[in-house]
Structure formats: structure tokens, C-alpha cells
Specification:
Blueprint lengths: L4 H16 L5 H27 L16 H37 L14 H22 L1
Helix pairs in contact: 1-2, 1-3, 2-3, 2-4, 3-4
Keywords: Membrane, Transmembrane, Transmembrane helix
């Protein structure tokens, strides 16, 4: 229903942090950019999937689950469980990527600039794949 809103909210928070608290730390700005691309990319593609299935509309109330109080409760529960799990999984994988990038950068000074870099499209695909995996897992368990 609206599980993509939790990772989207995290992406917005990371954007604010990147542009305020990390102004003087270019290394961390680059790392946060990886997380942002994973979160924004996955959220946008999940939103498109929800639009395709008719769960999100372009007219009020936008989320079809907001039409009745019962559906709203189900939607909020989904955001709290599925959406939060998506955010945690994507952030954990980002943390693993950062760790291995740091380990790689310790090997030689010339590798520091290359450490942890992979194409933005792959970041979006990775974020989307992780979010869809969590979505499918929760759907299978329901």
C-alpha cells in the first residue's frame, strides 16, 4: 500500500543531513550519496509499482488505503513493518558496502579514490532489489 514511504522518509532525512551536517566532510557526503541513491531509486520504483497496481492515485486521497479508517490502520501497520524493514535492510547493506570500501582503501593510497565506487544505476537496482525482496517476503508470510 504505502511501504515505500518509510525508505522515502529516510532518504529525505539523509538529504537534509548531507546538506547541513556533512558540509565539511566530502568523504561522508560521497558515502551518504550511495545510500540516497539506493533509497530514492528503490522508493521511486516501488511507488511506480504501487501506481500500476492502483494503490496510489493522482487524485485525493492519493493513497487508496485512506478511504476508510480500517484500511488506514492496515496501511500504517504496513508502513511500520514492511517499510521500516526495507529501510533497515537497505541501510545495513549500505553499511556493509561502506565497510568493504574502507577495508579496500586501507590496502594502498591509490585505491582510496576508487574504493566503494560503483555506478549509480547499480545503486538504484540494488536498492530496488532489496526493497522488493522485503516486500515479497512479507507478502509470502501474510
Amino acid at each position: 500500500m504505502a511501504c515505500f514511504t518509510a525508505p522515502l522518509a529516510e532518504a529525505i532525512v539523509t538529504s537534509v543531513i548531507k546538506h547541513t551536517a556533512l558540509k565539511d566532510k566530502p568523504e561522508w557526503k560521497n558515502r551518504i550519496s550511495v545510500l540516497q541513491q539506493m533509497l530514492y531509486g528503490g522508493s521511486v520504483i516501488l511507488a511506480a509499482e504501487h501506481i500500476y497496481h492502483g494503490e496510489v492515485t493522482f487524485y485525493p486521497p492519493f493513497l487508496t488505503a485512506l478511504k476508510t479508517p480500517e484500511d488506514t490502520a492496515v496501511m500504517l501497520h504496513e508502513i511500520a513493518t514492511v517499510g521500516t524493514t526495507m529501510s533497515v535492510v537497505v541501510t545495513a547493506v549500505w553499511g556493509i558496502i561502506c565497510y568493504f570500501a574502507w577495508k579496500k582503501s586501507q590496502k594502498s593510497e591509490s585505491e582510496i579514490k576508487k574504493a566503494g565506487r560503483f555506478r549509480p544505476a547499480l545503486r538504484v537496482v540494488l536498492g530496488t532489489a532489496l526493497m522488493f525482496s522485503v516486500d515479497i517476503l512479507f507478502a509470502a508470510l501474510a
